Amino acid sequence: MGEKKIETNEIQTCSFTGRQFLSSEYPKLCSCCKKEFNNRQSYWESTSPLEHGNYSNGNQNDIFEYRNCNDCSSTLVTKLLDERDHSNEGNKKREQWEQQFQFLVSNGIPKERAKTILSKKKYI
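Above: the chain's sequence. Below: its structure in token form.
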């Protein structure tokens, strides 16, 4: 069984983050308080970022965004599209980023600061 093909008209770009998501993610319902988020904008305005990071990588290079419901503080998850370049060149750039990140951290730069420094360069 193959993976479901994503239609181009299902892909939208978030005006707040610039990340791509599937329109089928909305409406989204908070499983705790049952608040409904009809679209990406209502979701973004009615949720808050987590204290220690909002994104994680899942299996198959899926990217998940985590935010807390402003009404009940329950954590909600939205699947985002992987926009990384998976070519040899893209893999090489990510490897270079990782090497430079490890260099900065091993020389006393805090991880978040190292990420900020490297985010100013185009690797991914």
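Strands lie at 11-13, 20-22, 28-29, 36-37, 47-49, 55-57, 63-69, 75-80.
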